[in-house]
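Practice record 12: protein with adenosine-5'-tetraphosphate.
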Amino acid sequence: MARPRVLSGIQPTADSFHLGNYLGALRQWVTMQETYDAFYCVVDLHAITVPHDPAELRRRSRVAAAQLFAAGLDPDRCTVFVQSHVPEHAELAWVLNCLTGMGEAARMTQFKDKSAKQGENAASVGLFTYPILQAADILLYQADRVPVGADQKQHLELTRDLGQRFNHRFGETFTLPQPHILKEVEKITDLQDPSAKMSKSSSSPQGILDVLEAPGPLRKKVMRAVTDTGTEVRADDENKPGVTNLLRIQSALTGTPIPELEARYAGQGYGTFKKDVAEAVVEAFTPIRERTEKLLANETELDRMLAVGAGRAGEVARRTMAMVRDRVGFLPRA
Ligand code: AQP
């Protein structure tokens, strides 16, 4: 029997992925390559929905791809590619744009948040239609599952609605995807503001742990993470959101259940606990950083790996788009 298909993407909008990306997405990508027919992309088309510098985008796209391979994605087990190498993403997005209501798109909270930051009139139409491009990414590969963090739930619902609408109007074409969200790591929060998600665009440098960061600063940031005035290491989202976030991080990184961690640090205060969290982070990130540096040292080989991925992704994308063109009523090219 064919393996179920998985698709997920990540934006090349920073010089490094952060712990939220790693636990909420990347680590699951690595696990899922074993049991799924997995497609993972560096979504550079999404990255230009906000103002960008071309040279920086090129550099960050390679850094993103290198981190994916360094985190354990194996080109023999899954397909890793750059979104703009497969033009069908943009083509399908156009078709889906024409099926999306203005009000429907306007309800997307990520657009509201991001455009509020830029000033409503400064935000691009591309930022507005971002979720529709994301729907195209997913539907193009007929994905059964999409591993994401909690922030992407609403976009996944839109994807299902658009897929269903297309199927209803033009005949069965798309698989409707299910989100794949791990409850324990669906929202890693900012170390300085545990009410907000850890985020490259809105976290302060002290609030975010970067995968490519050196051990020294990583340790310092964890030690300075906001906790609360008590001393008890206990999971309690309401009263101890900072400690709870650190417990989630340590539990996810070491595979130790939270109650076991609570028992281990009983009566010890925050110091030892934070030190151990910092070590767990450094231990997880160091090999990824070292492998990323090696991969980036040979750009030709990295670009070749991405070309192989684009070749495989393109085959699937072309098959879906041929069907879409026909169903929509576009004239075949003689
Ligand atoms: N804090 C988080 N906790 C859990 N999962 C998270 N993800 C992001 N932040 C967290 C997941 O990472 C994947 C890649 O996301 P992206 O490239 O779309 O980046 P993002 O969501 O835009 O990440 P940021 O840091 O929040 O960037 P900005 O600030 O630009 O919006 C997704 O699966 C996401 O759920």
